[in-house]
Automatic annotation (TrEMBL):
GO CC annotations, alphabetized: Golgi apparatus
Keywords: ER-Golgi transport, Golgi apparatus, GTP-binding, Lipoprotein, Membrane, Myristate, Nucleotide-binding, Protein transport, Signal, Transmembrane, Transmembrane helix, Transport
Protein name: Uncharacterized protein
Membrane-spanning intervals of the chain: 81-99
Protein's GO biological process: protein transport; vesicle-mediated transport
Cellular location(s): Golgi apparatus
GO molecular function, one term: GTP binding
Binding locations of GTP: G44, N101, K102, K103, D104
Domain of life (superkingdom): Eukaryota
Segment forming the signal sequence: 1-17
Family listed: Belongs to the small GTPase superfamily. Arf family.
Organism whose genome encodes this protein: Brassica oleracea
């Protein structure tokens, strides 16, 4: 199984190993209940977009991380999310998770602010959208 983790903005730590994040991409293999998952962590830097075809083709899932504090970049996040389905139409058949990063902080945008337009033009996703509540990691990597 291959999953792409797409992060639009640079983050301080890799989500699996909590190692420093490097611009570009990183690859992690995660085994869960005897299923091996290869995770490609790619960022949205313009110079790297021509390489995306190597990551997004033949993927089984997409984890798209939206920063709920970054109001200045939410338009870009929407544009990138929508663009993925036009560039890679087969992604529609993949498992798609939208992670709401920093949603718990006081200055975070409301879900309506973030969703307004994020799914616009992607009517084929509307029947499969689900709101799933999960626990997360604190900024120091501890479960809460």
């Amino acid at each position: 199984m291959v999953i792409v983790l797409y992060i639009l903005v640079f983050v301080a730590y890799n989500m699996f190993a909590f190692e420093p994040y490097y611009a570009g991409f990183s690859v992690e293999k995660v085994e869960y209940k005897s299923v091996m998952i290869t995770v490609w962590d790619v960022d949205g830097h313009e110079k790297l977009k021509p390489l995306w075809r190597h990551y997004f083709n033949n993927t089984d899932g997409l984890i798209y991380v939206v920063d709920y504090l970054n109001r200045e970049r939410i338009g870009k996040a929407k544009q990138e999310f929508q663009g993925l389905f036009f560039i890679f139409p087969l992604m529609i058949n993949s498992i798609i998770l939208v992670f709401e990063n920093k949603k718990d902080l006081r200055r975070a945008m409301s879900p309506r602010e973030v969703c307004n337009g994020l799914y616009e033009g992607l009517d084929c996703l509307s029947s499969t959208l689900k709101d799933v509540k999960v626990a997360g990691f604190t900024s120091v990597g501890h479960m809460f």
